[in-house]
Amino acid sequence: MSTQKFVLGAPGANLGAQRPKKCARSRSLRIIAAASLALLALQPLAAETSGDKSESDRLEKLERAVEQLQKRNAELEQEVSSLKKRTAFAPEFAPEGQTKITSDGKTYVEKNVLTEEKKPIYVVPAGPEFRLTLGGYIQMNFEDGAVSAFEGRFGLTALKDRFRLRRARINLTGDFAEQFDFKIEGDFENSDGISSNRVAFEATDIFVNWHQFPEANIKIGQWKAPFGLEQITPDPVLFTIERSLPTGAITPERQLGVQIWGKPFTNLWPQEKDLLTYYAGIFNGNGRNTTNNDNNNFMYVGRLELLPWKGKVLGQDSSLKLGADILNSRDDKGTNISQTLNLLVNTDGSLSPFTLPGADERTAWSVDAWLNIGPFDLIGEYFQEDVDGRTVAGVAPGFSDFEPSGWYVQGSYFLFPKKLQAVVKWEALNPGQFGSDGIHSITGGLNYYIHGDAIKLMANYVHTWSDFRAARPGIGDDQFDEVIMRLQLMF
Asked: If you average pLDDT over every residue of the chain, what do you get?
């Protein structure tokens, strides 16, 4: 029923949400009646005084009158208290609609006005999903100094100080009773290092996963190929603002394909169901949001994760996680083989995307480890890749074989539990195209968790060395410094 509003004051004024005027008149009449009883009781007293009645009679009548007034006053107070407890939706005020008071300039008239009940706004799935979740996150960066120098962006590829909308993603996930789940996610951010001229909304993850058997899920669509611990770790939970250079240069990032994955001990050994997780996928191999494969060959990717130990150290939850990856792909001319960051070494030592001048075959592998002891985390990862040219239809590849490799070690510790975290990362990439063409960086940072990862402030200082420039004096500076700050909000 609609909220009732009542008005006191001049004609046409808004009288506010008050008790009906009828109730106010009723209370006034009761007070007048009580006062009349008191006067009736006092009149005989005056008459008796003139008739020389006894003092005791007068006192007795006066006490009876006072008792009557007290009783009536108590009744009135109880009624007023009851009225205050009633809400504006009380049916006795407006059983069929909203009570309004109108005026013709002389008198006030109360009447019920029929009003249509407003229905609540709600959203329901169009399909048979039993769970549908809308979410997303925003990451806003401030970057000052030698911007992205740790990614090889200096000299010919240098960037300027900037505010950067790093990610602005929205996603929809859902589950079906038939053991299917799905995710649809897109990014409003204008440039991600892959498509530098992109200015429109673009898909990131779009997939369907059949999970009836936890030992053998089947996943179809577009998502991150299972290669590299840091790469497959979700962006919002990373301990540093950006991923390491070797992760971006060597791992394949998002691809279109199909994958089987699972935890083989889920039913055989339930208490150790997380002991082993495997992933095996077949992908186009030429990046995300593509309508065609670069050739009739596919990229094959596999990953194994082992959780050999999980327990307590000094009363703190602790664990050790190990991982290993393998990748093989045969690519045609024009394929970008450094999907996320740069790998091609320029004449000044800076890096650019490596777009193949001819066909190749790539084989890459990596190993990783993650040790957690309460507030302390130690993570390390090593990558290596062989890029070998292929002659296709008598056409030479147009480049020499090379072997990029890289690694990083990262340690972090909560200075204040679940609130303030310090992190240090040491990383290196050797593109393997020239002698002394490596890039090294050290990152120091602080993360302040305002509301966990949902609202988080991050600050990183990054110092970078270029071996290429240090070995070739006169090209330019061989050391660079950068400050990066980020505000993250998840919803």
From this structure: 85
Q: Are 406 and 245 in contact (CB under 8 A)?
A: yes
Q: Distance between CA atoms of 468 and 350, rounded to whole angstroms?
A: 9
CA gap 100, 104 in Å, rounded: 13
> How many CA atoms lie within 13 Å of 441's alpha carbon, on the beta-carbon side?
32
Place of tokens 């109730």: 23
Enumerate the β-bridge partners of residue 209.
Answer: 181, 219
The 3-state secondary structure of the chain reads CCCCCCCCCCCCCCCCCCCCHHHHHHHHHHHHHHHHHHHHHHHHHHHHHHCCCCHHHHHHHHHHHHHHHHHHHHHHHHHHHHHHHCCCCCCCCCCCCEEEEEECCCCEEEEEECCCCCCCCCCCCCCCCCEEEEEEEEEEEEEEECECHHHCCCHHHCECCEEEEEEEEEEEEEECCCCEEEEEEEECCCCCCCCCCCCCCEEEEEEEEECCCCCCEEEEEEEECCCCHHHHCCHHHCCCCCCCHHHHHHCCCEEEEEEEEECCCCCCCHHHCCCEEEEEEEECCCCCCCCCCCCCCCEEEEEEEEEEEEEEECCEEEEEEEEEEEEEEEECCCCECCCCCCCEECCCCCEECCECCCCEEEEEEEEEEEEEECCEEEEEEEEEEEEEECCECCECCCCCCECCEEEEEEEEEEEECCCEEEEEEEEEEECCCCCCCCEEEEEEEEEEEEECECEEEEEEEEEEEEHHHHCCCCCCCCEEEEEEEEEEEEC
**pLDDT tens digits, residue range 156-180?**
999 999 999 999 999 999 999 889 9
Q: What is the pLDDT of residues 367-413, one digit of tens each?
A: 999 999 999 999 999 999 999 999 999 999 999 999 999 999 999 99
β partners of residue 257: 221, 283
Q: How far apart are CA 244 and CA 182, in angstroms?
A: 29
Could you report the per-residue pLDDT of 311-344, keeping only the tens digit for each? 999 999 999 999 999 999 999 999 999 877 788 9
Beta bridge partner(s), residue 309: 320
* CA–CA gap between residue 192 and residue 248 (Å, rounded): 12
Structure-block tokens of residue 176? 């079906």
Q: Which one-letter amino acid corresponds to residue 389?
A: G
Average pLDDT over residues 189-205: 71
Residues whose CB is less than 8 angstroms from the CB of residue 53 and which lie 6 or more positions away in sequence, other chains included: none
Q: How confident is the model over 472-482, as pLDDT tens digits?
A: 999 999 999 99
